[in-house]
Write a structure and sequence with these properties.
The structure holds 2 protein chains of 2 kinds.
Chain A (H helix, E strand, L loop, with lengths): L5 H9 L3 H12 L3 H14 L7 E7 L5 H14 L4 E7 L8 E3 L6 H5 L3 E7 L4 H17 L4 E7 L4 H6 L4 E6 L12 H6 L2 E4 L7 H16 L12 E3 L8 H17 L2 H28 L1 H15 L5 H15 L1 H12 L1
Parallel strand pairs in A: 1-5, 1-6, 2-4, 2-5, 6-7, 7-8
Chain B lengths: L6 H11 L10 E3 L3 E3 L5 H4 L22 H4 L3 E6 L4 H13 L4 E5 L2 H4 L23 H7 L10 E4 L4 H15 L8 E3 L4 H7 L6 H18 L3 E2 L1 E4 L1 H5 L4 H21 L4 H4 L3 E7 L3 H20 L13 E5 L11 H16 L3 E3 L12 H16 L14 H24 L2 H7 L1 H18 L27 H16 L2 H17 L3 H10 L4 H12 L12 H5 L3 H18 L4 E5 L8 H12 L3 E4 L6 H11 L3 E6 L4 H14 L6 E6 L6 H7 L3 E3 L5 H17 L1
Parallel strand pairs in B: 3-4, 3-11, 4-5, 5-6, 6-7, 8-9, 9-10, 10-11, 12-13, 12-14, 14-15, 15-16
Antiparallel strand pairs in B: 1-2
Helix pairs in contact in B: 4-6, 6-7, 7-21, 11-13, 11-16, 13-14, 13-16, 14-15, 18-25, 20-21, 20-22, 24-29, 26-27
Classes of the chains: A alpha/beta, B alpha/beta.
Chain lengths: 341, 711
């Protein structure tokens, strides 16, 4: 069933064929090595066509109105003649492994628009899994020519850090509460934010939204800004009433102008690529390590010893790693080869 | 009274009959948190002061009227409407000639949602689940030769309530009937639309203003007309248990009262015209007790506002037997179910009643099935002799005790809602909808396991498929309506129409009674769609937020082995395909009944599927786009409003056009078996009729997937 012709995917994506774009993302997300291999080849050929979009990450606690915000925000961008892609990462149930993805029920107008592409993806049991692959899906959307690519995720676990590491602009969506906003929020997320937007500033909420805004402003002062050229602002908006949405877009454009002019944006993307490479190496090393015959043979024995209290975890790790060090003799061989060249 | 002297002896005997098990082993946990015992005695009700009260007097537990059916039996009011106004009119007149006492009009979904029959979004829905009405000209035909000063008319309309109530009033004017002669009911209960039925148009706030304007207009001009029919029926149909139905319905009622008070009205000018609408299910005694409990609670709740008029705190209600309890399998059983539910409503003291036709699990009633449904009531009313005694079950230890248990449990939920700031706020938080869906998922799991018996479905299956006529609405209806619309747009004075619509928009913007401002537009032959648009300009169109529950189905399902084996198959599929089975569940057309889809979604996710849910009211093109973008393996279409023969082939065509031809399409809901062939030929892979257990559906879906991808 699977189409194996790499060029089919490449041509389809570049021709902005939605069907092929969707299938490409499926290949990227697949857990089958055979699919991943196709995806890798496709990515390689698409790479020259990437880099032109504005990449935006959006996170927020459940109930912050992320989807409703994206609906209003996306419609506004379409009105400006832009084409947008939205990649939504939805947590799966740990128990059943299944998921319910209802993002589009809150993006009724946007999802019907021909110039918008929305792709929800389940995280699977490991939270990080699909989120990692989202980086590649983002690049595919870029190659397909979308002007803006939005990655949406729930603010839980490590997801937001991962998403922040693949976008130009990371937006944290908040809702006005009863004045105790800061208690529930992790300091870490403030450090990631390029802007905090307080949504649902409508009706009875308006005064509370302004109060929350002051509190976040104070809190942001206490955080070291990630960039010397950008201090993250705190904005208020009502996605429901479509107020304050334009201001968010202007802020993102400002950010692009300011960091673009200093070359910081380009540097940020390069850093992200290097970071991504390091991550992939770590992943690969881990996989290779645990697949090593000697290691996997030794693990039950070591495990038993730890449980029996015969060795310390430090010693256990050392023992396992030493397996690789010894078989690392082949590294010497590599070194010799290098020298002979 | 103290403990019954023979109680110990009884207990001893009972435990011997139970072979040593305690009598408590006979207790039953009823949905809604009520524990039912096997035996009730005087001691169970001695703490209640209200058991020995009188009908027609506070707290109205025994009935809203002093003489009840002994004085005048309940009104037999059958809900009907389909196709064109002409066809419905003929059906009404035949019904009135054969024993029906009042009309109850069902409108089609485009009308509910404020679209004209020629709107591109409604191609599959015109005239299907009710009568199509575009202008007052259709209303005139609908009520042709039906004197509106004599026959009371109930209209189920909530979204497009202004043009429809306006249309009824103007049709009466044109018959020469004065406003104050009109009797009947407009449902006008918008709050429950956000909970279950989804036939709203505008957001809650402006919608509540419309409700309040109608209450105000009628208090003045139509004093014999019921201005809101506060409905629990749809909640029950969506899966709410007795306690949830009671609590949410009364909480909705409270919200309307507060809204009217806030608009400056006096409680006694409008509260007597608020009526109720309850759904009656199969749990016989529980449903009797529900109506009694609701009357008691309403009196208690309204008394807080210190009404001077005694009628202000009286709950009068219409009831309908449960459509959800009807089965496609062994459909003649439905006549018996409806009879039992009819008895519950009557013993509970309803003021009017609709009994369902036995064929409603598969289609609209025919003249034949409608006659049987009507006769069910006539036989109970005139042959069974139940009308002579008022509240005949009053004083029963069991019924009185049940009544008070429902009062207590419902009051707890009402208090919870009050703490949230009332029903509008609670709805905003999503709480009531989640509770109903959770209750629905649990009920489904109990039925799928056979813990709740449904004869002919999960027990005593016959395997026979009786052949009976099913009413089919021709697709010509839409064409006929469009021709009429074009004719009217050509012959009316369009300047007058434009002016009237402009005034209506202004009233929406700046204030002024909206029903008052709707009437000139209706008189000028403005269409339902035009009037709705004039308001939408100011109010906007509401988009629902969908919250989903998870884990409920699996936790209620006791045979974990079955759930596990389905999960394993999902896992195996993933090992083979690189991802889980992925299904898009969608509802196309204007059919807003989303209970089925929600229950299936949560159950399939519990079995390890990745489930996408589409927004409501999709066109086939929109659903196809979503299926392709999300790259699902299959699309599941839920159809309950007879649009399947247009919308499902439409989806298949759209899928093929955008390269999604290998995406399988399956269908479920109310689809008559004789349409199966047509749908299979169009390319549908599997059809699930009403009553299919979800376990069974999941199994068949996995079979399909395994065959296509792993075979």
């Amino acid at each position: 069933m699977t189409i194996t012709d790499v060029q089919y995917y490449v041509d389809g994506v570049l021709a902005r064929n939605r069907r092929v774009l969707s299938k490409t993302i499926t290949m990227i997300e697949s857990s089958l090595p055979f699919h991943q291999n196709i995806a890798r080849n496709v990515m390689e050929r698409l790479l020259p066509y990437t880099g032109k979009s504005i990449r935006i990450g959006i996170t927020g606690v459940p109930g912050a109105g992320k989807s409703t915000f994206i609906e209003s925000f996306g419609m506004m961008l379409l009105k400006r003649g832009l084409e947008i892609a939205v990649l939504a990462v939805d947590p799966s149930s740990k128990k059943s492994g299944g998921s319910i993805m209802a993002d589009k029920t809150r993006m009724e107008r946007l999802s019907a628009e021909s110039r918008a592409y929305i792709r929800p993806s389940p995280t699977g049991r490991t939270l990080g899994g699909v989120a990692q692959k989202t980086r590649e899906s983002l690049l595919v959307c870029e190659a397909a020519g979308f002007d803006v690519v939005i990655v949406e995720t729930v603010g839980v676990g490590q997801l937001e850090t991962t998403v922040a590491s693949m976008v130009d602009f990371f937006l944290v969506l908040m809702i006005p509460g009863a004045g105790d906003e800061l208690q529930g929020i992790k300091r870490g997320i403030l450090e990631l934010a390029d802007a905090i937007v307080i949504n649902k500033a409508d009706g009875d909420n308006v005064p509370r939204a302004h109060l929350a805004r002051q509190e976040y402003e104070t809190a942001l002062h206490l955080v070291n800004p990630a960039s010397a050229n950008w201090s993250p602002p705190v904005l208020t908006c009502s996605a429901l009433e479509e107020r304050g949405i334009e201001k968010v877009w202007e802020t993102i454009l400002d950010h692009k102008r300011q960091l673009g002019a200093t070359g910081e944006l380009a540097a940020k993307r390069k850093d992200q690529s290097l970071e991504w490479t390091r991550f992939l190496i770590n992943e690969g090393l881990q996989e290779w390590f645990y697949k090593n015959d000697q290691v996997s043979r030794k693990i039950p024995d070591i495990k038993g010893k730890i449980e029996a209290g015969l060795i310390t975890p430090t010693q256990a790790a050392q023992d396992l790693l030493s397996v690789i060090m010894i078989s690392g003799a082949s590294d010497d061989a590599l070194q010799r080869e290098e020298n002979e060249k | 009274m103290s403990k019954h002297s023979g109680k110990e002896q009884w207990k001893h005997l009972a435990e011997r009959e139970l072979k040593g098990n305690p009598v408590e082993s006979l207790n039953r946990e009823a949905p809604g948190g009520i524990t039912l015992k096997a035996l009730y005695t005087a001691e169970d009700i001695e703490q209640y002061e209200c058991t020995n009260t009188l009908p027609g007097l506070p707290p109205y537990l025994r009935g809203p009227m002093a003489t009840m059916y002994a004085g005048r039996p309940w009104t037999i009011r059958q809900y009907a409407g389909f196709s064109t106004a002409r066809e419905s009119n003929e059906f009404y007149r035949r019904s009135l000639a054969t024993g029906q006492r009042g009309l109850s009009v069902a409108f089609d979904l485009p009308t509910h949602r404020g679209y004209d029959s020629d709107h591109p979004r409604v191609s599959g829905d015109v005239g299907k689940a009710g009568v199509a009405v575009d202008t007052v000209e259709d209303m005139n035909i609908l009520f042709d030769k039906i004197p509106l000063n004599e026959i009371s008319v109930s209209m189920t309309m909530n979204g497009a309530v202004l043009p429809i109530l306006g249309g009824y009033i103007v049709a009466a004017e044109e018959q020469g009937v004065k406003h104050n002669e009109l009797t009947g009911t407009i449902q006008n209960d918008i709050l429950k639309e956000y909970l279950t039925r989804n036939t709203y148009i505008y957001p809650p706030l402006p919608s509540m203003r419309i409700v309040s304007d109608i209450i105000a207009f009628c208090a003045d001009a139509m004093p014999r007309f019921n201005t809101v029919s506060i409905s629990g029926y749809h909640m029950m149909e969506a899966g709410a248990d007795i306690v949830l139905q009671t609590a949410f319905t009364l909480a909705d009622g409270l919200e309307y009262v507060r809204t009217a008070l806030k608009a400056g009205m006096d409680i006694d000018t409008f509260a007597p015209r608020l009526s109720f609408f309850f759904g009656i299910g199969m749990d016989f005694f529980m449903n009797v007790a529900m109506l009694r409990a609701a009357r008691f609670l309403w009196h208690r709740l309204i008394s807080r506002f210190n009404p001077k008029n005694a009628r202000s705190s009286v709950l009068r209600t219409h009831c309908q037997t449960s459509g959800w309890s009807l089965t496609e399998q062994d459909p003649y059983n439905n006549i018996i179910r409806t009879t039992l539910e009819c008895m519950s409503a009557v013993l509970g003291g309803t003021q009017s009643l609709h009994t369902n036709s036995f064929d409603e699990a598969v289609g609209l009633p025919t003249d034949f099935s409608a006659r049987i449904a009507r006769n069910t009531q006539l036989i109970v009313q005139e042959e069974s002799q139940v009308c002579h005694a008022i509240d005949p079950l009053g004083g029963s230890y069991y019924i009185e005790s049940l009544t008070m248990s429902i009062v207590e449990e419902a009051q707890k939920i009402i208090d919870e809602i009050e703490e949230m700031g009332g029903m509008a706020k609670a709805i905003e938080s999503g709480m009531p909808k989640m509770r109903i869906e959770e209750s629905a998922a649990r009920k489904q799991a109990r039925i799928d396991q056979g813990i709740e018996t449904i004869v002919g479905v999960n027990k005593y299956k016959s395997g026979e498929t009786p052949d009976f006529e099913i009413r089919e609405v021709s697709d010509d209806v839409r064409v006929q309506q469009i021709v009429r619309l074009q004719e009217i747009r050509k012959t009316r004075d369009n300047k007058v129409v434009a002016k009237a619509l402009e005034n209506l928009t202004k009233a929406a913007e700046r204030g002024g009674n909206l029903l008052q401002h709707t009437l000139p537009a209706v008189r000028a032959r403005a269409t339902v769609g035009e009037i709705s648009d004039a308001l939408e300009k100011v109010f906007g169109r509401y988009v629902a937020t969908t919250l989903c529950i998870s884990g409920v189905y699996a936790s209620e399902y006791r045979d974990k082995e079955i759930i596990e084996s389905l999960r394993r198959r999902s896992e195996l599929f993933m090992e083979h395909e690189g991802r889980r089975p992925r299904i898009l569940l969608t509802k196309m057309g204007q059919d807003g009944h989303d209970r089925g889809v929600k229950v299936v979604a949560t159950a399939l996710a519990d079995m390890g599927f990745d489930v996408d849910i589409s927004p409501m009211f999709q066109t086939p093109g929109e659903a196809a786009k979503m299926a392709v973008e999300n790259d699902v393996h299959l699309v599941g279409v839920s159809s309950l409003a007879a649009g399947h023969k247009i919308l499902i082939p439409g989806l298949l065509t759209e899928l093929a056009q955008i390269g999604g031809e290998e995406i399988m399409v399956i269908a479920g809901g109310v689809i008559p078996p004789r349409d199966y062939r047509f749908l299979y030929d169009a390319g549908v892979s599997e059809i699930f009729g009403p009553g299919t257990s979800i376990i069974n559906s999941a199994n068949k879906i996995l079979n399909l997937l395994e065959k296509q991808f792993m075979g």
